Amino acid sequence: MVVMDTARYIWMDGRIVDFEDATVHVLTHALHYGTGVFEGIRAYEAVGGTAGFRLTDHMRRLARSAKSYRMDLGYSVDEMVEAAKEVVRANEFSSAYIRPIVFLGLGALGLDPRNAKVQVAIITWQWGAYLGEEGILNGIRVKVSSWRRFSHDAFPNAKATGTYINSILAKREAVTDGYDEALMLNSEGSISEGSGENLFVIRDGVIYTPPLSAGCLDGITRNSVMTLLRDDGYEVVEKVIHRSDLYYCDELFMTGTAAEVTPVREVDNRTVGSGRPGPVTRRAQEIYADAYTGKLDEYTDWLDYI
Ligand code: PPE
Fold it and tell me: Ligand 1 centre from 257 Cα, in Å?
């Protein structure tokens, strides 16, 4: 999946180090308890040069995630943005996936980690189509997982490393059963999100997505796509979505930094719409790509040039 040897340099605790030197100790608190927060950002070749798409917004979310877990990031959002740029430049990437991570290191084990040192790293690598080239072109097959999404009142709405074991259970079940991706219900039984993506449903020309209270991540791609589609004249509604809504809809797609806009062609062995990516999905893919490549003047604020 991730071709780690393409990145020669990693930013770690304030400086660029060689790939081989970006290591941690086995007593790292986050290894034992999942006490980390992270981000995923893509940088693209855009009009005017390589640019991180909503890089600053991602670093803001990282700072919020850290705060919610009482971790002192130790760098400002601007410093984190600069560090991300620095590591992409050091690796001479013209496009890249960027992974900042903030985690508790050495100094304490046990559940009161006040003495554990906060460590910060920014890794970058080349990451192709998250759900496969074929998936982004023609759509993926998903199944509703038997694993529920962790409840929104059990964890802050943050991107924390530890919570991903819930997504991994769902993803592995889906892949083992022959599907591309898992969709998770929340504890109330309504649709929350995919293992690593938000979800959009289209019916009779209206676009629906679950509200944050359904327990989904406050996705930056979700937010971008909602804005772009609304500005394009579509009605986009945040609404509780049930499993059967997926069976009766015209189109379905998933969004995420890694997944971008990925069409869904089948849910629980039922064909979605015509079985081919529909017009709204195609339009969402098109305007999202135009936005991240800097082709739309209205959204150039979303680009942080590297
Ligand atoms: N929900 C989850 C659970 C999630 O992990 C992601 C991103 C999203 C929604 C979409 O969020 P955003 O990227 O802000 O639009 N998943 C990241 C990591 C995936 C991974 O496998 O690692 C990503 O897309 O970078």
Answer: 6
Rounded CA gap, 97 and 124, in Å? 6
Instruction: Write out residues in the chain with pLDDT < 50, as ranges.
Output: 3
As a whole number, the mean pLDDT across the chain is 96
Cα Rg of the chain (Å, integer): 19
Count the alpha carbons within 13 Å of 88 in the hemisphere toward its beta carbon.
Answer: 28
| 3-state DSSP assignment of residue 201 | strand
Ligand 1 centre from 100 Cα, in Å?
13
Separation CA 108–CA 113 (nearest Å): 6
Catalytic site includes residue 159 = yes
Q: Check residue 2 and give its pLDDT.
A: 52
Catalytic residue among 85, 159, 171, 295: 159
User: What whole-number distance in Å separates Cα of residue 121 and Cα of residue 83?
Assistant: 9
The rounded distance, in Å, linking the Cα atoms of 256 and 259 is 5
Query: Which residue among 147, 195, 257, 292 is best mutated to probe the pocket of ligand 1, counting the most ligand atoms within 8 A of its Cβ?
Result: 257
Task: Report pLDDT digits (tens) over 38-59.
Answer: 999 999 999 999 999 999 999 9
Q: What is the pLDDT of residue 5?
A: 52
Q: Indicate the top mutation candidate among 97, 159, 168 to test ligand 1's pocket, ranked by most ligand atoms within 8 A of CB.
A: 159
Query: How many residues belong to the chain?
Result: 306
How many A from CA of 138 to the centre of ligand 1?
21
